[in-house]
Write a structure and sequence with these properties.
The chain has 11 helices and 2 strands; from the N terminus they run ααβαβαααααααα. It is mainly alpha-helical. The chain folds into 2 domains: about 15-200 and about 250-325, no CATH class; about 335-415, no CATH class. The chain is globular, with a radius of gyration of 26 Å. It binds a DNA duplex (15 and 15 nucleotides) through helix 4, helix 5, helix 6, helix 7 and helix 8. It is found in: Nucleus.
DNA sequence: GGGCCTTTGAAGGTA
DNA sequence: TACCTTCAAAGGCCC
């Protein structure tokens, strides 16, 4: 994962994704830098081509198999060079520190894949428009149909992302999203273009009155639903069952890759006739790695802006809020948790000899006991508990309530 | 019906 | 500080 050098200076944190942007005069240097990346990408491409040759199944890989979708990354450098050139000559060259999403060069939205064409083909992939999507679509409702409108209502109609001819006076997203301190509750006219703002009920509103796509109802199913489905109007019967109204869930802001996925997913689906997200995400992951730093930088910047907006809208929100809901709610059982269950006595806090000692073997978990009837055998079978090979550990006295297992945790090896 | 899969990055927690 | 875990999106699949 290419870590972008920090541009520093952002008090919102995540300096690791800040990019030291360069002016157009340094583009050649960038190209030279990319040359190094090209070599790496060449390896990637060759490996991907091999994979494509191996995998002929057009379908989606089934569970337990490594899904090998039909389409793979074709990171054509000619195209990217063209991008660079266009950026040099186009408006994109001045994108940073301005905001890129308002001036995205079209090549940036182009698909770099030959998912249908055979890998050996020299045919350049057909360049498609970007399905009207936009990297900042996540700042629009977080939903499956929230593809970015080519001409959002809040933007001038001639502000097409294709040409990017016009730019707002302010290049920074703050002109569209951010709210100055103390004015959070005042929705600027520019905020009014949130499409769901007319649909959200009170529960979908931020306490400040600002609707935000990150707010979703709390139930597990609704995690995958979204605001524009009228889910805020719950049946009365269901409402009665709820003793107390649940707080709407504020979801995490999307990171750079998620923004990239949201933009490119539809295109991959269209080109590869795939629908299963697992396979699509693999493709997108490869494409993500195949992107140049400049291309990735756009998404990092978008993500940074989104986090910035998120923090402004929900200053007290923490990612841990959603952790708690998951851990103690009924959302889902992680695979790791299931594996743990399969190796331990469910409902019992028993945890090996390290916790209970040799004198309380009856309190050990099943794997640590290594089959009770064999414990008395001589010699005893090797116990799965790794503490057999370690000196008696001094463990914390805190109760064993952590739901997940870490490699460093003093739990049975068999639970890994 | 709900978890799993699959990806990367951000963030929180722990040692 | 390093490491680990969870969540964010997405939709078909599977139990």
């Amino acid at each position: 994962m290419p870590q972008l050098s920090s541009g520093g200076g952002d008090d919102m944190g995540a300096n690791d994704e800040m990019i030291a942007f360069k002016d157009e005069g340094e583009q050649e240097e960038k190209i030279q830098e990319n040359a190094f990346t090209e070599r790496d990408l060449a390896d990637l491409k060759s490996s991907l081509v091999n994979e494509s040759e191996i995998s002929q199944s057009p379908g989606v890989a089934r569970r337990g198999q490594q899904p090998e979708p039909r389409c793979y990354v074709e990171k054509h450098r000619e195209h990217l060079n063209g991008v660079t050139k266009q950026q040099d000559g186009g408006m994109y060259k001045t994108s940073y520190p301005g905001y890129p999403f308002l001036m995205l060069p079209d090549p940036y939205l182009q698909i770099v894949t030959d998912c249908v064409s055979p890998p050996q083909s020299n045919k350049v992939s057909v360049v498609q428009q970007s399905h009207g999507m936009h990297p900042l679509s996540s700042l629009l409702p977080y939903g499956p149909n929230e593809h970015f409108s080519p001409s959002p209502p809040h933007l001038p109609t001639d502000m097409s992302q294709k040409t990017g001819v016009h730019r707002p006076q302010s290049q920074d997203i703050s002109g569209f999203y951010s709210l100055p301190p103390g004015s959070v509750g005042q929705i600027s006219p520019s905020m009014g273009w949130f499409p769901h703002s007319l649909m959200l009920g009170p529960s979908g509103m931020h306490p400040t009155g600002i609707p935000h796509p990150a707010i979703v109802p709390p139930s597990a199913k609704q995690e995958h639903d979204h605001y524009d489905r009228g889910m805020y109007a719950k049946p009365q019967g269901e409402a009665k069952r709820e003793k107390e109204p649940k707080k709407p869930v504020i979801k995490k802001p999307l990171n750079a890759f998620m923004l990239y996925m949201k933009e490119m997913r539809a295109k991959v689906i269209a080109e590869c006739t795939l629908k299963e997200s697992a396979a699509i995400n693999q493709i997108l992951g490869r494409r993500w790695h195949a992107l140049t730093r400049d291309e990735q930088a756009k998404y990092y910047e978008l993500a940074r802006k989104e986090r910035q907006l998120h923090m402004q809208l929900y200053p007290s929100w923490s990612a841990r809020d959603n952790y708690v809901r998951t851990l103690f709610g009924k959302k889902k059982r992680r695979k790791r948790e299931k594996q743990q269950d399969s190796n331990t006595d469910p409902g019992s806090p028993k945890k090996c000899r390290a916790r209970f000692g040799l004198n309380q073997q009856t309190d050990w978990c099943g794997p640590c006991r290594c089959v009770p009837e064999t414990l008395s055998a001589s010699p005893p079978p090797p116990c799965l508990c790794r503490f057999d090979r370690l000196p008696p550990p001094v463990l914390s006295s805190r109760p064993f309530i952590r739901p997940s297992v870490r490699l460093s945790d003093p739990v049975c090896m068999s639970l890994r």
